[in-house]
Structure formats: C-alpha cells, structure tokens
Amino acid sequence: MSRWGDEWWEHAPSRPRKARGGIKARSKRGTFAETWWGRRWLAALERLSVGGRLQRGRSYARKGQVLDLTITPGKVTARVQGSRPLPYSVSIGIATIGRPARRKIGEALAANLRIAAGLMAGEMPLALLLAAQAMHALTFGAAHLGAMHFMARALPEEWSSTGQSFYSAIVSGIGFGLVMAVSGQIYAALGAISYLVMAGIAAIGALAGSMLDRRWHGERLTT
Question: What phi-psi label fits residue 49: left (phi over 0), alpha (psi between -120 and 50 degrees) or beta?
C-alpha cells in the first residue's frame, strides 16, 4: 500500500519480462542449494535481512531471468532481466585468500585433521569459534572500558554523565550506523584491501590512545 496525501491506492505487483536464452536453475522447488557450502552461503545471506530480495532471486533463477553469469577470483557478475525493458547488472565481491594465507591454512588443517573434517562437513569447531569470539570480546571490552575510565577520571563531575551519554550516542549509534553504511561499499570497491583500511583505522586509534596516555597524567580537565 502507498499513500499520497489522504488517498490510498494499491500498486499492481511488477512481474519480470520474459527472458530468452536465460540460465535456469536446476532446483524447481524446496531447497535451492545442494552442497553444504551452498547452504551455508545462502544462510549467511538470509542473516543480512535483505527482505524479499533473496526469495525474488530464487524465483528469477528458476525462471531463467539470468542472461549471463561470469565467475572470476573474488567476484561474481551477472546480467538479469527484470521488469524493465533493459536488463540490469549484479555484482558480488568476495575477498580472496592469498597464497601465503592458503599455505598457513593448509598447514593448520594438516596438523589437526579433526578440524579439517569438521569444516568439510560444514561444521565450525567449537574451540575455534570460542577463541575468535573471545578475542573480539576482549578487544572491544578493553576499548570500551578504557574510554569509560578516562571519562570518569578526566571529565569534571558535573559533565561526567553527559560525556558518557555523548560517547554512547556517537560510538553505538552514529558510529555503528556509518560503519554499516560504508563498509559494504568499501569492501565492494577494494575487496581484500578493505581489511588494510580497517587495520589503518585501528592503527590511528592506537596512536591517538598512545598520545593521550603520554599527555594526560590523571588530572581532571578544566573548561
């Protein structure tokens, strides 16, 4: 339903134009993916909350609306016939794993065949998952507690609660919102290099924290 002024009307559902010579998926109904990694890939896409786009993509694939599909290292591109006269292009970028990283992964899997068997079966070893989550929790928690400790000791008492509220609004609200908005664009444009961008931002934060530690000696800031 759409609204214009005080009047309501209902849009007729748009249907894709019939495509000729398109690529049809073998799946006609039910489960779309056949392999475990295909099912994990679709499950990851569903967690992104893209609404009905994923279901529409399945329908387009089954009807043969995909005119051509090109797969290259780190990128998948396709030309799709939708409801408009001209087809549109779709591109998905994925970070590739370099040769040194592949060698290290191979050595780690060879050292523990149980992990390799679990990954091949589509399972993430609990120990590996817990270690990754623990590292994330510790680094995020340390940064958050450090910021709260600094504000509690450095800000004047009458500004302490205001400073903490401002910090929470900037970091948890505006900061996370901006990161979510631009991270996908950066990843699509730079691919694996986007991780270097993240590392650079982290390095800037570490440098700023080090400079603050050298200049601040525990006294309260004055206005």
Answer: left
Query: Terminus-to-terminus CA distance in the chain, angstroms?
Result: 54
Contact indicator for 52, 60 with CB cutoff of 8 Å: no
In whole angstroms, give the CA distance from residue 29 to residue 79.
23
Looking at 8-125, list the stretches that DSSP marks H as alpha helix, in order from N- to C-terminal side.
Answer: 36-46, 53-63, 99-111, 113-120
Phi-psi region of 122 (alpha: psi -120 to 50; beta: other; left: phi over 0): left
Render pLDDT for 6-31 as a digit per residue (tens, 0 to 9). Answer: 443 444 456 788 887 888 877 666 67
Alpha-carbon 56 to chain mean position: 21
94, 74 contact by CB (below 8 A) = yes
**What gap in Å lies between CA 31 and CA 39, rounded to an integer?**
9
Q: If DSSP codes are grouped into helix, strand and coil, which group holds residue 8? A: strand
Condensed to tens digits (0 to 9), the pLDDT of residues 112-170 reads 666 666 665 556 666 766 776 787 778 778 887 888 888 888 888 778 778 888 887 88
Is the separation of the CB atoms in 100 and 106 below 8 Å? Answer: no
User: Is the distance from CB of 63 to CB of 16 less than 8 angstroms?
Assistant: yes
Length reported for the chain: 223
DSSP state of 7: E
- pTM over 0.90? The answer is no
Q: How far apart are CA 54 and CA 43, in angstroms?
A: 11
